[in-house]
Write a structure and sequence with these properties.
The termini are far apart. The radius of gyration is 25 Å and the shape is globular. Helix 3 (72-94) runs parallel beside helix 8. Strands 1-2 form a two-stranded antiparallel sheet. Strands 3-4 form a two-stranded antiparallel sheet. A hairpin with a 6-residue loop joins strand 7 and strand 8 (238-241). It is an alpha+beta fold and 305 residues long. The chain has helices spanning 20-25, 31-41, 72-94, 97-103, 117-133, 138-156, 170-185, 211-225, 255-274, 279-286, 290-297, 300-304; strands at 50-53, 66-69, 104-107, 110-113, 189-196, 201-208, 228-231, 238-241. Among the domains are: 13-51 and 66-185, no CATH class; 255-304.
Length: 305
């Protein structure tokens, strides 16, 4: 039930400069952290949220016995898979073979996908808790081992392709990232045909049906275009920089943050001057040039004259 004392604004995620898939991957899988993300960016399923019977809601006008929402476990599942995929992709980008070797093993000439440490903890938490409750008798141990081996084979088989060289880690990791993304993209981004007036032809475009579909599509596009992830110096949120962009040196996510950063540098220059530092010293400390610093330090009236 939407609270009457709250105002909800509509927005188009694709128009925002934020790399939402990375923001989501860093959300702690706790109720408060997930609620904070949802309050800021919206529900994963949007209008497809489930109707949940909750009995009589005190103070509700009109009286209702249900709310529309999304189960916490659904959010946790998406977050854990997103964290896994982003972590693997960062290992690939960094060429971090040591980290990849903790998630991928080679056994008898085949790739065995173990999973990242955090993914394993989440994947195994439920079954291990059941075993603990059973007292961990030998029969349950055998069943658990067989189930774990089955999951491992299921996640490993797509990574064993003919072109993968024995002992290689990078491409198996890429295949795992693609498998995770594709599993969530399916049925969440409906392709549509539209007429492109400029190109004078029919084109196909993927249209995400909700926020969940968008974050996975955004991640897929980041992989396809090999963007570089960065944190905004002002708002500290993630954004992506395309390799073909005219501003590959961007340090802020938007014009608003860029303006704030610029004004902060101006203020820092004035403060450093008051501390007795020269324009040359200020320029070196702020990573700027002397001419720009002198412009910051020149009073506005003197500039106009």
């Amino acid at each position: 039930m939407e609270r009457q004392d709250r105002i909800f604004d509509d927005y188009i995620p694709a128009d925002e400069p934020i790399a939402l898939y990375r923001e989501l991957s860093e959300v702690e899988p706790s109720q408060n952290a997930i609620l904070g993300f949802a309050n800021r960016y919206g529900r994963l399923q949007g209008d497809s949220a489930q109707r949940i019977d909750v009995g009589e809601v005190p103070g509700a006008i009109p009286p209702v016995g249900y709310v529309y929402g999304e189960p916490l476990e659904d959010w946790v599942r998406v977050i854990e898979h997103m964290h896994e995929a982003v972590a693997l992709w960062d290992m690939v980008r960094d060429g971090d073979h040591d980290a990849l070797a903790e998630a991928i093993e080679w056994r008898e000439g085949r790739v065995v996908y173990l999973g990242t440490a955090r993914y394993r903890r989440w994947r195994d938490a439920g079954p291990l808790a059941i075993l603990a409750a059973m007292g961990d008798p030998p029969e349950e141990q055998r069943i658990w081992k067989e189930a774990a081996e089955s999951v491992m084979r299921f996640e490993s088989d797509p990574l064993n392709q003919p072109y993968i060289r024995t002992g290689e880690f990078i491409r198996p990791a890429i295949l795992r990232v693609l498998a995770v993304i594709n599993s969530f993209l399916y049925d969440r981004n409906g392709p549509v045909l539209f007429w492109d007036q400029r190109a004078n032809k029919v084109k196909r475009q993927d249209i995400p049906s909700n926020l969940e579909g968008f974050v996975w599509l955004q991640f897929a596009q980041a992989l396809q275009h090999r963007t570089e992830p960065r944190r905004c110096q002002v708002c500290n949120r993630w954004f992506d920089v395309s390799s073909g962009s005219s501003r590959t040196d961007r340090l802020t996510c938007s014009n608003t943050c860029r303006t704030q950063a610029y004004r902060k540098r101006q203020g820092d220059a004035v403060r450093l001057k008051a501390e007795g530092k020269t324009a040359s010293q200020i320029a070196k400390e702020l990573g700027s040039d002397v001419k720009t610093v002198k412009g910051w330090l020149t009073p506005r009236k003197q500039k106009e004259n």
